[in-house]
């Protein structure tokens, strides 16, 4: 069965390429003076390139041929030519510097904007796009489409070089210069065919590179599971297949560039040189032809084709950059943003009352995960959400935290629509503790305060003491300055969870959300932090997803969810008396503990 061809494996039309270039130009606009300087220096270099061959032509035809050359004249022309070379070298340096720095500044600007865009996007985007693909676009693609600006440097150089060389050749001999223009249509066809064919090659190559990065990210992140289930052979085979596919696209790119880039331009240059020497040779049979004129004409011909060779070499970077740029723009244009807030700057969460009124929510907008969910959590109450996997517990938390937009109904905090609060107010007054806490590189101190310098060291210690995390922290060699490596791998799951509790408490939230926060904590550690949890919940409204039902028996209200609906509600004693879903879950857990 033939492999389904992705849109990225198709050729990119010229109109689409021009659209990508037009869309990328605003990112370079803040640094336009670098590119303007590049154009100016390109023009000045072309002027110098006109005069350098004329210096030697004058010296050869007027002085060497007529035996009028003296030591003084020799040194004069040598010094004049040397001075011209120094001036050209300085201009070439400035041209390359301004062009490269402009591209680097633009690259930094695009990456910063793209990184900021990713953090404004809704969770649904990250549910649909693999992390390796996102990483590939943020690193490889941005770097590649920055490189294509090098083509504009050579394009400016080639434009001025072609114009100046044609003018100079016409001034020397208009007939021969006109004959040399017969190669221009062939050159134009070559460039047209290359951009049309190579865009398909580079699209396919970019897609394969994205797949490769996705495989790498997945294999590194899941290495423990891969080894546990002895999946090394399968993972290696899949990686080899993806890597081989990427290698083949690279081979296709190399073949295309090897045939259609500088070798073809060199062929045109060689044919042009043969034509020039042939014309001058025929004239030499019937009269005199100055050696200086022949030298100047060949030099102008070289100046005509040499920038084109460089341009064709950079055309590969240009095609790669346009394709990469289109992939970056797809991220920048993606409408999947975080749920919008119609914020009232004066809105403040003071009591912590939570109310869901007939809330319906679907991740894809079509298949509801929550269906007509309604409940009220009074200030200071603890509301527990229980139910089987997929019943809608975590989805309720996602809606409350504004990670996703709900489709219908109302979510109120302190009797006010949740969308009227500024996002900063929601994040400051709502504390979330996840089942799998994430820890950043740094130390324990920075992971508790989350790099917020407004939180003092004393507040960090008070929060750690409050949740009983100081017991193990003070036993560490460097206490609160103890190093934290990737994901906090050097600490136990219980220790990481205690740090996560301290991280939440240090901001003094009004609403506390516990998403199976003790699921990965052993019984001894759970008992140690249970007292701290009870203290945390004082004067705070708590929404808790419970894995161990024993931890929520004192909740003010227990909501039992099944297939996105609340099927039972009440206290622990009330639900047990109903002998329904909750009762069956309690019996199932108790029997499991007995076994």
Would you kindly provide a written description of the structure presented here, covering whatever features stand out?
This protein has helices spanning about 15-30, 30-65, 70-120, 125-130, 130-145, 150-170, 175-180, 185-220, 225-230, 230-260, 260-285, 290-335, 395-400, 425-430, 445-450, 455-465, 470-475, 495-505, 525-535, 570-580, 580-595, and strands at about 355-360, 370-375, 380-385, 410-415, 415, 430-435, 440-445, 485, 510-515, 540-545, 555-560, 565-570. With about 600 residues, it is of the alpha/beta class. The chain has 2 domains: about 15-200 and about 260-335, ABC transporter type 1, transmembrane domain (ABC transporter transmembrane region fold); about 380-405 and about 420-595, Rossmann fold. The strands form 3 sheets. A 6-stranded mixed beta sheet has the order 6-9-10-3-11-12, sandwiched between helices. It has a 4-stranded antiparallel beta sheet with strand order 2-1-4-5, with helices on one face. The chain has a two-stranded antiparallel ribbon with strand order 7-8. A hairpin with a 2-residue loop joins strand 11 (about 555-560) and strand 12. The longest helix has about 50 residues, at about 70-120. The chain is elongated.
């Amino acid at each position: 069965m033939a492999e389904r061809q992705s849109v990225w494996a198709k050729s990119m039309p010229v109109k689409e390429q021009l659209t990508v270039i037009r869309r990328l130009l605003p990112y370079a606009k803040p640094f336009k003076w670098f590119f303007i300087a590049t154009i100016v220096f390109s023009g000045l270099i072309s002027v110098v390139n006109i005069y350098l061959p004329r210096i030697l032509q004058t010296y050869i035809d007027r002085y060497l041929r007529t035996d009028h050359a003296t030591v003084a004249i020799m040194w004069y022309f040598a010094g004049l030519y040397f001075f011209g070379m120094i001036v050209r070298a300085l201009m070439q340096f400035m041209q390359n510097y301004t062009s490269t720095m402009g591209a680097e500044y633009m690259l930094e600007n695009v990456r910063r904007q793209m990184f900021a865009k990713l953090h404004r996007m809704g969770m649904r985007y990250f549910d649909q796009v693999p992390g390796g693909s996102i990483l590939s676009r943020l690193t490889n693609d941005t770097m590649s489409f920055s490189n294509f600006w090098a083509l504009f440097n050579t394009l400016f150089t080639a434009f001025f070089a072609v114009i100046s060389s044609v003018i100079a050749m016409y001034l020397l001999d208009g007939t021969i210069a006109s004959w040399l223009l017969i190669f221009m249509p062939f050159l134009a066809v070559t460039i047209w065919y290359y951009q049309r064919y190579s865009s398909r090659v580079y699209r396919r190559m970019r897609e394969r590179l994205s797949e490769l990065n996705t495989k790498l990210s997945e294999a590194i992140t899941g290495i423990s599971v891969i080894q546990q289930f002895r999946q090394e052979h399968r993972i290696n085979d899949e990686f080899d297949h993806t890597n081989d596919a990427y290698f083949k696209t690279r081979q296709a790119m190399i073949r295309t560039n090897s045939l259609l880039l500088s070798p073809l331009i060199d062929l045109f240059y060689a044919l042009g040189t043969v034509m020039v020497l042939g014309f001058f040779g025929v004239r030499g049979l019937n009269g005199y032809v100055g050696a200086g004129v022949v030298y100047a004409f060949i030099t102008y011909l070289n100046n005509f084709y040499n920038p084109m060779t460089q341009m064709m070499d950079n055309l590969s970077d240009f095609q790669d950059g346009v394709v990469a740029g289109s992939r970056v723009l797809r991220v920048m244009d993606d409408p999947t943003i975080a749920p919008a807030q119609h914020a009232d700057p004066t809105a403040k969460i003071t009591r912590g009352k939570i109310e869901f009124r007939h809330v319906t929510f679907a991740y894809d907008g079509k298949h509801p995960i929550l269906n007509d969910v309604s409940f009220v959590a009074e200030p200071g109450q603890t509301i527990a959400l229980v139910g089987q996997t997929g019943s809608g517990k975590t989805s309720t938390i996602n809606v409350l935290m504004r990670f996703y937009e709900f489709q219908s109904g109302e979510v109120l905090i302190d009797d006010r629509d949740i969308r009227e609060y500024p996002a900063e107010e929601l994040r400051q007054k709502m504390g979330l503790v996840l089942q799998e806490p994430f820890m950043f590189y740094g130390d324990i101190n920075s992971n508790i305060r989350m790099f917020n310098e407004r939180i003092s060291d004393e507040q960090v210690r008070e929060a750690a003491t409050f949740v009983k995390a100081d017991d193990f922290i003070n036993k560490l060699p460097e206490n609160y300055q103890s190093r934290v490596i990737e994901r906090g791998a050097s600490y136990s799951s219980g220790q990481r969870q205690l740090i996560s509790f301290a991280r939440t408490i240090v901001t003094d939230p009004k609403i506390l959300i516990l998403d199976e926060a003790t699921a990965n904590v052993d019984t001894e550690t759970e008992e140690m932090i249970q007292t701290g949890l009870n203290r945390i919940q004082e004067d705070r409204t708590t929404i808790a997803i419970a894995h161990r039902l024993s931890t929520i028996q004192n909740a003010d209200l227990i909501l039992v969810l099944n297939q996105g609906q609340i099927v039972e509600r009440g206290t622990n004693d009330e639900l047990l008396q109903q002998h329904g879903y909750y009762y069956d879950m309690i019996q199932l857990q108790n029997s499991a503990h007995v076994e």
